[in-house]
Amino acid sequence: AQKITQTQPGMFVQEKEAVTLDCTYDTSDPSYGLFWYKQPSSGEMIFLIYQGSYDQQNATEGRYSLNFQKARKSANLVISASQLGDSAMYFCAMREANNDMRFGAGTRLTVKP
Amino acid sequence: DTGVSQDPRHKITKRGQNVTFRCDPISEHNRLYWYRQTLGQGPEFLTYFQNEAQLEKSRLLSDRFSAERPKGSFSTLEIQRTEQGDSAMYLCASTRTRGQGYTEAFFGQGTRLTVV
Questions:
Q1: Consecutive sets of 10 residues in chain B, 116 residues long: mean pLDDT of each?
Q2: Per-residue model confidence (pLDDT) at position B104
Q3: Cβ–Cβ gap A52/B101 under 8 Å
Q4: Distance in angstroms (rounded) separating the CA atoms of residues A1 and B37
Q5: B25-49: per-residue pLDDT in tens?
Q6: Residue A108's beta-bridge partner residues?
Q7: Cβ(B111)–Cβ(B76) under 8 Å?
C-alpha cells in the first residue's frame, strides 16, 4: 500500500513568493522519520530537511521549513522566498523503525520570474 | 570525494545481456539502499542492507535481480537477462543508524541503464 502521498503533480510559484508542497503519510509505527529531497534536472537527489516523529518543534533549514501535523499525518514542505534555482522535483519520504525508506511520487515545482 | 559513488554512470546493453552496477557508500554508513527511478516517478525501493545483511527485498526485485554487500562496504546490483522494461535510473543511497534516531540518506548520482 502506498504510504506516502504527494497530491500535487506540479506547482507554480512566483519568484520571491512562498510555496507549500503537500505530503501525507500513513503509518501505525509511533517512531518514524520524514524527509524531503530535491531532484534538479541534473538528476542528483539532494537532502533538504528532516522531521522526527517525536520532535516537538517543526524542522527548519534556511528557507525550508516542515509543517508537521502529526494528528493529520501531514508533513508539508514550505519554501520561503522562492528562487529560480528552486525549480526541481521535490520528493517526500518516510522511514519507519528498522524499515526501508519510501518515497512519494513527487511534485514538480516551477518558479516563474 | 567522500560521497556515495556509483559506477558506471551510464550503461547501454542489449536485451538479454547481464549487467552489474556498483555502489560505494559513505565509509561509516552501515545501511545501504537500492532504488529504481523511471522518468517522472519517485524512487521505487528495491532492497536494503544493514552492514552485510540484506534485510528487505521489494516484490519489484524479480528473480533476475540480485544484490550483494559481501563485506558490509560496497554493494553490487546485478540484472540478468535484461528486458527493455529494466531501463531506468538505478540509485544507491547510504545512511547510518543512530540509536532511535534517523539520519538522512545520501544518494549517489545513479546509473542510467538503457536496454535496447
A1: 89 98 93 93 92 88 92 94 96 81 85 97
A2: 85
A3: yes
A4: 18
A5: 998 888 999 999 998 899 999 999 9
A6: A10, A89
A7: no
Is residue A13 within 8 A of residue A111, CB to CB? The reply is yes
Cell of A55: 520532535
CA proximity to B96, closest of B19, B31, B21, B5 = B31
For residue A31, the chain B residues in CB contact (below 8 A) are 100
**Residue B97 near residue B48, CB atoms below 8 Å:** no
Q: Which residues pair with A77 in a beta bridge?
A: A21, A66
How far, in Å, CA of B47 to CA of B34, rounded?
5
Nearest CA among A27, A21, A23 for reference residue A1 = A27
What residues does A68 pair with on adjacent strands? A75
Name the residue of chain B whose CA is nearest to A95's CA. B102
- Report residue A100 as a C-alpha cell: 526501508
**pLDDT, tens only, A19-36:** 999 999 999 888 899 999
C-alpha cell at B99: 540509536
Backbone angles phi, psi at B85, to 5 degrees: -70, -10
Specify which residues B66 forms β-bridges with. B78
Amino acid in the structure at residue A70 = K
